[in-house]
Write a structure and sequence with these properties.
This protein is of the alpha+beta class. It is about 50% helix and about 10% strand. It is built from 15 helices and five strands. A hairpin with an 8-residue loop joins strand 4 (about 80) and strand 5 (about 90). The N and C termini lie far apart (about 95 Å).
Length: about 375
């Protein structure tokens, strides 16, 4: 079984919603990896689920889970990260199956083929075989009664700073809410999955909730965790904080946009802004707060697009493309060093000031000698 399928099985991830990245530098942050892969719109929202170091290539192999099914025809062979000349190779489940067939292996995670299927594979073209494997994968990707179809949640304890190996509150809540939304299992099993992922103070809180009200829903479990360990600000307060956000001195526009989006999501969740107004609020604040990227704002014509603003992913992709163009231009035309020559007049003025200071000190010395 391939590395991708084995890894998905160990993490409890549906392999048809996962891809592997090869050649990722070991110091690359998770947010950068997710932002890069999410530029491939066919994958939808992407989350990093595991990383391992490859000593041969001296780089990381990264497991990513995708909101949408990883369809090979819509996924490029590689993706170019921002500010890098080396692309990351993308390996999808169907690509794994194609390689297995080429090496004479049976497709993984599929029912045992009968005699009629064997004769079909022997007599059909490679294209027909690949198409058949894709159909089988689509069938096997549907939810089953097996508990392995669940999204496995990472650990959360509520301890600050976040211990190594645990998820911060916002990431854990996002994963848990996706698990609740995407699964068709009973609430009892969903609550069990949530309880399995918490420990320490978070475990104590949920145990108290379960003891006092056994009928509490999974969503109410998450609300209790958020209210206990998250921010206590109301929606209006969060919206005010969002409208005060500005770009940091060394922050890229794409980084500022992602930082804005985290706060904006909280604003909407807390009722500080209607969901329908989210795109307009995002582009308004981006224009207002991007005080160090005026030329890029003009280049992307964002002020002219406020009436019909783009979505977050569209905007992020456009900004990253523009940032890559800027980086390329800087590499081709590096800024020249500027040396300021001291003028004779400036030197003469400084010499005069120094002479006056010496005379003042000399006078003070004479006065002290007279007093002595």
């Amino acid at each position: 079984m391939s590395q991708l399928l084995n890894w998905c099985k160990g993490e409890g991830i549906n392999p048809s919603h996962a891809v592997l990245l090869k050649g990722v530098p070991e110091d690359t942050e998770v947010s950068v990896i997710e932002g890069t892969v999410q530029t491939i719109k066919a994958l939808g929202r992407v989350r990093v689920r595991g990383r391992t170091y490859d000593p041969v290539s001296q780089s990381l192999t990264v497991l990513c889970e995708c909101r949408e099914a990883a369809k090979t025809e819509a996924i490029p062979a590689d993706v170019m990260p921002e500010g890098s000349d080396s692309p990351w190779r993308i390996i999808s489940p169907v690509e794994v199956e194609k390689e297995s067939l080429q090496h004479g292996e049976a497709p993984s995670q599929t029912p045992e083929p009968d005699t009629s299927q064997n004769s079909f594979f022997q007599s059909s073209s490679p294209e027909a075989i690949i198409r058949a494997v894709g159909d089988i994968l689509q069938l096997t990707s549907k939810p089953t009664s097996d508990s392995s179809s669940y999204r496995r949640l990472r650990t959360f304890s509520g301890v600050l700073p976040t211990p190594l190996g645990e998820e911060p509150l916002d990431n854990w809540l996002e994963q848990a809410r996706l698990m609740i939304e995407e699964s068709d299992k009973p609430d009892k099993e969903k609550k069990m999955r949530i309880m399995e992922s918490v420990k320490g103070p978070a475990m104590e809180i949920l145990q108290a909730v379960r003891f006092n009200n056994p009928d509490t829903t999974p969503t109410e479990y998450l609300d209790v965790i958020e209210n206990t360990f998250g921010t206590t600000e109301m929606g209006e307060e969060l919206y005010f904080a969002f409208r005060m956000m500005c770009q940091h001195p060394t922050e890229k526009l794409s980084e500022f946009l992602r930082r804005m989006e985290r706060i904006l999501n909280k604003v909407v969740q807390k009722g500080g802004l209607p969901l329908a107004s989210k795109d307009k609020a995002r582009i308004d604040q981006l224009i207002k707060g991007a005080i160090r990227s005026d030329m890029m704002i003009l280049s992307l014509r964002l002020r002219e697009r406020k009436i019909a603003p783009p979505t977050f992913l569209q905007l992020l992709n456009e900004i990253r493309v523009e940032e890559e163009h800027e980086a390329s231009r800087r590499r081709l035309n590096p800024p020249k060093s500027v040396h300021v020559k001291r003028t004779a007049a400036a030197t003469e003025i400084e010499a005069t000031d120094l002479g006056l200071e010496v005379e003042r000190l000399r006078s003070q010395v004479i006065e002290l000698q007279a007093l002595a």
